[in-house]
Amino acid sequence: MASAHKTTDPGEIRSWVEANGGRPARVRGTGGGRDPGVLRIDFDEPDPSLEEISWTDWFDSFERNDLALLHSDDSRFNKLVQR
Predict the structure, then answer these.
(1) How many domains does the chain have?
(2) By residue range, what is the domain housing residue 54?
(3) Between vectors from CA 52 to CA 46 and to CA 56, what angle results, nearest 5°?
(4) pLDDT per residue over 13-61, tens digit each?
(5) Whether the Cβ atoms of residue 6 and residue 79 lie closer than 8 Å to each other
């Protein structure tokens, strides 16, 4: 059974996301101003409910909201959780 790994390290997060064909995203229609809204990772073909954002904006919101990424090393399982 695969185990999940929790991390807050930006380099580790970006490497894992990109190695799995993902990109930083937000849920369309959320946020406003400097707040990108609800963060997600978008994989493969772009999901129409998501909008790609820069890593800078994604990590700024990730830090401001005191989040961590829970992910599996052998699948695309991921979840943003409170630290």
Answers:
(1) 1
(2) 4-82
(3) 150
(4) 999 999 999 999 999 999 988 889 999 999 989 999 999 999 999 999 9
(5) no
